């Protein structure tokens, strides 16, 4: 008799979440569509680009928090659009003020506007400053196991290697590096950037990632609400497949029905 391995909830900075899918809040038609897609995704953590989305900076404009209030979701402020450590730190300090002392943040320091690839020296510098300042830092990074380990040693609560370039929809281009990061990590590993469709999310989870964060793949779909639901199911299926354990790959066929006791 076999037993199914018990799953555990995603735990980040001491708080547990039922959903392993994290979603962004940008690029939707309006705030109503943002809320509908968020609900369809089942996500509990919603990332917000502080430099691009109003969460109170402009009291005269609609606020994202009216659609996805902190009483229902964990708001994850991020530093999208920052290209150096100083700007990233300042942006998250502003977010902390706007969100009444909120500590959980997503750090991303970009290298250039064309690739949006992480600038790792500046990312490491900003991470060290933010951790010392009392933030719980989830960090967007390259799929380099050495850099990921350095971020964990600094004290980041989750590492978030890219699968491919932000918004590219190219999926997971280097599963081997992701596997190395997952194997060594003692904090959650979440794929961030590059997911294009449900199969990409499922593959990330089958590799053993603790979660997946995405925005463009949902908001940019022809039907964002339906895609959000597809991503929810894909993350759940990928996690279940990881726990179940896939069969080994073979270079020869293997009959699917028993051959022992068959008449000759």
What are the SSEs and their pairings?
Blueprint: E1 10-12, E2 15-17, E3 21-24, H1 31-41, E4 45-49, H2 64-67, E5 74-78, H3 85-98, E6 104-107, H4 120-132, E7 136-141, H5 145-154, E8 158-161, H6 175-184, E9 190-192, H7 198-207, E10 211-214, H8 216-219, H9 224-244
Parallel strand pairs: 3-4, 3-10, 4-5, 6-7, 7-8, 9-10
Antiparallel strand pairs: 1-2
Helix pairs in contact: 1-9, 3-4, 4-5, 5-6, 7-9
Describe, in short, the structure shown.
With 264 residues, the protein is α/β, with parallel strands linked by helices. Helix content is 37%, strand content 16%.
Work out the number of β strands: 10
Q: In what order do the strands lie side by side in the largest sheet?
A: 5-4-3-10-9
Cα separation of the termini = 31 Å
Topology as a string of helices (H) and strands (E): EEEHEHEHEHEHEHEHEHH
Mean pLDDT: 92
Helix content: 25-40%
The global form is: globular
Uncertain spans: none
Number of helices: 9
Radius of gyration: 20 Å
What proportion of the residues form beta strands (DSSP E)?
A: 15-25%
Biggest sheet architecture: 5 strands, parallel
Summing up helix and strand content along with how strands pair, one would put the structural category as alpha/beta
Which terms summarize this structure?
264 residues; alpha/beta; five-stranded parallel sheet; three-stranded parallel sheet; 10 strands; 37% helix; 16% strand
